[in-house]
Fold:
Amino acid sequence: RQLPALRRRCYIAGKRLSGTGLAAEGRVLRAVLYVYHSRLLRHRPYLALQQVEQCLKRLWKMNLVGCIETLAGLIPKKNTSQAHTECLVPSQPMLETVALKVLGGCKLILRLLDCCCKGFLLSVKHLCSEEFILLNTVALGLLSRLWFVVQYRCVLQSLMSFYGMLSTSLHLVSETQQMPYIKGFTFPSDISNFLGVNVSSEVKKQKARMLTTKKPTSWLKKLFPTVPEAVSEVGKKRNFATCTSAVKNCSIPCPVDIGETVL
Structure:
């Protein structure tokens, strides 16, 4: 009963980690950092984006997805376990290696969420000061999407559930045959104690801070002035000529970026 459940957890955790959304946001983040590197190297929101990119880079370098897939390949299929009273199971060194990487991955994802939240709040602060409006606007969208992708796909929650099943399997295998590989470290039975925070409450706090922060609206009114509509009734066409002329008359002072540097 334990092995099929562990195999399912491997599949779920690997699928959510290797999702296209997380990889796509990572590529966009690297492109933004590359474009603005020479101009905004000391800009605080840019440095916050670098911290987020470092978390993602370390997460990919761990090769956690490949390690989980390797473990899943070592677990016998359901029909094999039913046909034989005895079956091969992953060794204790293999389980310890995967468990250690899962613990590190959970720490990194928790740090990633925290960096996204702090970077979001910092970008809003600089955006309210009308500093590098284009970069900070892109950073807001990028960080909020990345935070949402990690949370919506339940990446951290799936890894925590996977570790719970992995810890149980590791305990059973070690009782059968003692072959410790990682010495000097005791694997925690409860991953929440290892992380040091309550994940659900921490995520709720981050979400509340991101939603209740002061939003910049003054510069939006300057860039996009109110345009009178020809018809206010629903279902009728708007006066697109008026809208087009209003947008053409709105001049943007700087072709590179909008806003002034705040020292």
